[in-house]
């Protein structure tokens, strides 16, 4: 039996990890959020890991308010970079294993081919720069770790694009959604499955490795919204607009599709298509 620490346990990914890990009798899970453990404090992380004899840390915590981060840079870096450095240092010191979640925002997103894990990064937003700094902190610590970059995360928990579209689709006859950003939607339940798969195979991983994960397929936000409306049998019409017209505070990658081959090769992990996972998530939402 191993002791597993999950940070950010009240977020989308954390809640999905809770669901999946409840049936795991081989390990003991410690679910924490900021009230139980402030990972921006190195002393708190050190004390918690020592007290509970932690063998694996799954860092699902993060500052994810992308537009707000443009005006809240200090706090964004504190959570996404400094806290990650704390986790990496403790991971190295105690010779344990770390799984850290990063983002497509570390890429500029100006290419038209899927990004590979070893492609050069060039973040354009405060959020993207903070996540890139977190990645760098792990690499510099030279610890036993996996960094998983993911994109367009949604689930039946918390606030996300799918739930927002469902709410607006019931309230409005027409919506305008960006159609010049292409990416891969990721159901948090699928990402949670991958994380637990990697955790169980951690002895085969040397040093720090970076993987990309999203559900199979690529789509624009506009077409993603249209599929949500179709699945929910909503008559709301979804009209395309450009990123410039939308006018968000933080720049977004125009193309953030991932090359997913490494996950499949290294872990024999079968990645669902985004349409199938969307249907699965929406079924869970309808049952709530």
Question: Could you give the topology of this structure?
Answer:
Layout: E1 2-7, H1 12-21, E2 27-31, H2 42-51, E3 56-59, H3 73-94, E4 97-103, H4 126-141, E5 144-150, E6 153-154, H5 161-171, E7 174-178, E8 182-183, E9 186-187, H6 188-200, E10 208-213, E11 219-220, H7 221-231, E12 237-241, H8 243-246, E13 255-256, H9 261-267, H10 274-286
Parallel strand pairs: 1-2, 1-3, 3-4, 4-5, 5-10, 6-9, 7-12, 8-13
Antiparallel strand pairs: 8-11
Helix pairs in contact: 1-6, 2-3, 3-4
Describe the structure.
The chain has helices at residues 12-21, 42-51, 73-94, 126-141, 161-171, 188-200, 221-231, 243-246, 261-267, 274-286; strands at 2-7, 27-31, 56-59, 97-103, 144-150, 153-154, 174-178, 182-183, 186-187, 208-213, 219-220, 237-241, 255-256. It is α/β, with parallel strands linked by helices and 288 residues long. It has one domain (2-159, 185-216, 256-272): Rossmann fold (3-Layer(aba) Sandwich), CATH 3.40.50. The strands form 4 sheets. The protein has a 6-stranded parallel β-sheet, with helices on both faces. Helix 3 links the parallel strand 3 (56-59) and strand 4 (97-103). Helix 1 crosses helix 6 (188-200), helix 2 runs parallel beside helix 3 and helix 3 packs parallel to helix 4. The chain is globular, with a radius of gyration of 19 Å.
């Amino acid at each position: 039996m191993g002791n597993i620490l999950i940070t950010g346990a009240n977020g989308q990914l954390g809640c999905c990890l809770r669901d999946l890990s409840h049936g795991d009798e081989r390990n003991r899970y410690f679910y924490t959020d900021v009230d139980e453990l402030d990972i921006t404090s190195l002393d708190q992380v050190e004390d918690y890991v020592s007290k509970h004899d932690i063998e694996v840390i799954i860092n699902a915590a993060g500052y994810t308010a992308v537009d707000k981060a443009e005006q809240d840079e200090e706090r964004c870096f504190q959570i996404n970079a400094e806290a990650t450095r704390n986790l990496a240092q403790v991971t190295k010191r105690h010779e344990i294993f770390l799984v850290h979640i990063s983002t497509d925002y570390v890429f500029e997103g100006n290419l038209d081919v899927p990004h590979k894990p070893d492609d050069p990064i060039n973040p354009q937003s405060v959020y993207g720069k903070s996540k890139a700094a977190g990645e760098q902190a792990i690499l510099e610590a030279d610890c036993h770790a996996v960094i998983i970059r993911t994109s367009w995360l949604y689930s039946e928990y918390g606030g996300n694009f799918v739930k927002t579209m469902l709410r607006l689709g019931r309230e409005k006859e027409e919506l305008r959604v960006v159609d010049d950003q292409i990416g891969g939607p990721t159901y948090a339940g699928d990402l949670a499955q991958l994380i637990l798969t990697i955790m169980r195979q951690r002895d085969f991983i040397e040093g720090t490795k970076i993987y990309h994960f999203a559900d199979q397929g690529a789509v624009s936000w506009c077409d993603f919204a249209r599929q949500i409306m179709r699945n929910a049998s909503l008559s709301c019409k979804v009209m395309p607009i450009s990123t410039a017209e939308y006018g968000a505070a933080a720049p977004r990658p125009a193309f953030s599709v991932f090359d997913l081959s490494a996950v499949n090769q290294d872990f024999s992990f079968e990645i669902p298509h985004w349409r199938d996972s969307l249907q699965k998530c929406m079924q869970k939402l309808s049952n709530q």
